[in-house]
Amino acid sequence: MDPRTFRMEILRYVAVHDCGRVINPLVLEGQVEGGVAQGIGGAFYERLAYDDEGQLRNASFMEFLVPYATEVPEIVIGHLETPSPLNALGIKGAGEAGVIPVGAVIGSAIEEALGVPVTEMPLSPQRLFDLTRSGC
Q1: Are strands 74-80 and 12-18 parallel, antiparallel or unpaired?
Q2: CA angle, residues 95, 92, 106, in degrees to nearest 5
Q3: DSSP track, 31-83
Q4: Could you report the per-residue pLDDT of 19-76, keeping only the tens digit for each?
Q5: What is the spatial distance between Cα 17 and Cα 79, in angstroms, rounded to a whole number?
Q6: Model-level pTM greater than 0.70?
């Protein structure tokens, strides 16, 4: 995190998952990488903003931020293969492995680095600045 701008940058991300038997490694890696990108969006960018009357204020991609390829770090992927006993191919779901832990990993790292509790996402530079100033 840049201490002047509070901009966060993930330098490297490691994901290890168990999707049962790996059938198509290239498709599987794409699913995990896409999930990590989606998780980064939820951790830093994707915020739904409503006005006082409950109308969504950022309904287009001009106002609703999503991560670009430049915001997605190198992703190192590890595969564990524990075949499922519930189907003939021994496969399990794979797409969730990338997206689910990102917010918790980022929040935990920020709590450790800054000593402040993280209780909500996304963590914009403004939110990080506010956290460091308020102490909570």
Answers
A1: parallel
A2: 35
A3: HHHHHHHHHHIIIII----B-TTS-BS--STTTS----GGGS-EEEEEEE---
A4: 899 999 999 999 999 999 999 999 998 888 899 999 999 888 888 888 889 999 999 9
A5: 6
A6: yes
